[in-house]
Write a structure and sequence with these properties.
Layout: H1 2-16, H2 19-26, H3 28-47, H4 52-84, H5 89-112, H6 117-135, H7 172-204, H8 209-212, H9 214-237, H10 239-259, H11 263-277, H12 280-289, H13 298-324, H14 327-330, H15 333-344
Helix pairs in contact: 1-4, 1-13, 2-3, 2-4, 3-4, 3-6, 4-13, 5-9, 7-9, 7-11, 7-12, 7-13, 7-15, 9-10, 9-11, 10-11, 10-15, 12-13
Length: 354
């Protein structure tokens, strides 16, 4: 089962770097819709798989399509943002967070009602496919322009070359690496709640089963809140200031929760971690798309691909520290990630729009 589930991130890693080429060739709108449709069908295949090979194959294809759709959706969302004239990308990622929580809740309800897997996956694939097709009428026409080009020209003030002022004078690959560090820090923060919060609360702090999932709920819920608020904050204070404050929130919130462990304090700490993690991946994605010296979608593709590696390796790293020392010390990687964000935050745009 573990090997089959691992086929999903494997497919994502192998296919992820092709996303930029596909977006340039076929347009972000078309790639996003087609990849979503194929991902839905592949997930259905995995859900009705009669044997291990079909399960692994379905998850492999679904992971590959997920990574391609991820880049295409962000590319199109950034194009919409440039036309819109202010930051809205964080709200798009908030919808993703809502979808993640809703998907988990629907899966739990289906299991509780003893809904058969084929029926559940078929309905899910149908709903996602229909929504993807209906979105076609609202997507922007034509190929995706360069980030520096204007649609219309007056709509992108502060998001073009001038937005790069104040960034460190490093090479394009050096800046890309710093963006990967910031995005990976956000990924590690998210994964702390996804993979370890229930174990830490129940086994280390002795939380009852009813409260074991409270850390995950707090992190995901506050992440949604943070992403819904981040766009206005980015416009008013700039991407750099928002990310710096986010790192500080995680350092203080999770740091205090680990230094002075308690059930309530730890749940609050996970919630503050979700709040702090909220703007980091959108910030890295946005900045990567605007990096000079890369073809359209190339910087975004590379950062998105490397972030998947971050999601893949962060659970084993925390687990290794937990095995060698304790899970409490392993979770110190979360405030350490907040410190990394604060150190490298200058790579982000400091322009204010409000």
């Amino acid at each position: 089962m573990g090997l089959a589930v691992g086929a999903f991130p494997l497919g994502a890693l192998l296919a992820g770097l092709s996303a930029g080429v596909l977006v340039r060739r076929f347009r972000s709108s078309r790639v996003a819709v087609v990849a979503t449709l194929v991902a839905a069908l592949a997930t259905l295949l995995a859900g009705v798989a009669p044997e291990w090979g079909v399960l692994a194959g379905g998850l492999f294809i679904a992971g590959a399509m997920d990574s391609i759709a991820d880049v295409a959706q962000n590319t199109h969302g950034l194009r919409v943002q440039r036309i819109y004239g202010r930051s809205i990308l964080n709200s798009f990622h908030a919808v993703w967070s809502i979808g993640a929580v809703a998907g988990g809740a629907l899966g739990a309800v289906a299991a509780g009602l003893a809904v058969s897997r084929p029926l559940q996956f078929a309905l899910t694939a149908l709903i996602c496919g229909v929504m993807a097709l209906l979105s076609c009428r609202f997507l922007l026409p034509g190929h995706d322009p360069l980030p520096d080009s204007a649609e219309p020209p007056t709509a992108v003030t502060g998001l073009g070359p001038s937005a790069r002022s104040g960034r460190p004078a490093t090479g394009k690959y050096g800046m890309l690496l710093l963006l990967v560090i910031i995005g990976s820090a956000g990924a590690l923060m998210e994964d702390a709640g996804n993979s370890w919060s229930a174990i830490y609360l129940s086994e280390t702090l002795g939380a009852p089963a009813l409260l074991a999932g409270a850390g995950f709920i707090a992190l995901q819920g506050m992440q949604v809140v943070g992403r819904l608020l981040s766009d206005r904050l980015v416009d008013r204070f700039g991407q750099r200031s928002v990310a710096s404050a986010a790192g500080l929130i995680v350092v203080v919130g999770m740091g205090l929760a680990l230094v002075f462990p308690s059930l309530v304090g730890t749940i609050i700490g996970f919630g503050l971690t979700g709040l702090g993690a909220a703007p980091l991946i959108p910030a890295a994605v946005h900045a990567a798309d605007e990096l000079p010296g890369f073809r359209p979608g190339e910087g975004l593709t590379i950062v998105s691909w490397l972030l998947r590696i971050g999601f893949l390796i962060s659970p084993p790293i925390v687990g290794w520290v937990a095995d060698a020392l304790s899970l409490r010390l392993g979770l110190l990687l979360v405030p350490a990630a907040g410190l990394l964000v604060m150190v490298f935050v200058r790579v982000l745009n400091g322009t204010k729009r409000g």
